[in-house]
Amino acid sequence: MKIRIQGNTIRFRLTKQEVSDFAEHGEVKDKVEFGSSALVYQLIRHPKDDFSVDFVRGVISVNVPESIVNGWAETEQVGFDSEIVYPNGQKLSLLVEKDFQCLIPRKEDESDLYANPRAVDN
Question: Please, what is the Cα angle at 25 between 86 and 112, to 5 degrees?
Fold first, then answer.
């Protein structure tokens, strides 16, 4: 799972296996280690109809409504997004999407990524 943070926007990109695991088990997570510390980021399916985000002890937890997760893995839907507005007026934008193969070849294993819809078959 890839994470991209810019300002008050968090974007998650999931491989085929991660999308499948999220749909089946209701959770997917990864981490980046900094010596003796780590930043953990996870998506968790929950029964409520709204998104929520927590950041506690180095763990970013994004709670995704069950109604959105169900079926996402089985469709062509690329992703989903939400904007959380906090009581102080601050906003956090979330985007979760399937990770596509790049159009320009890279030295990276892309075997578990989705075929890029913009790719031209030769």
Answer: 95
Q: How far apart are CA 21 and CA 23, in angstroms?
A: 5
- What does the alpha-carbon distance between residue 106 and residue 91 come to, in Å, rounded to a whole number? 35
Whole-number Cα distances in Å, 52 to 32, 71, 83: 22, 20, 9
Q: Is the pTM of this model over 0.70?
A: yes
What's the confidence (pLDDT) of residue 118? 74
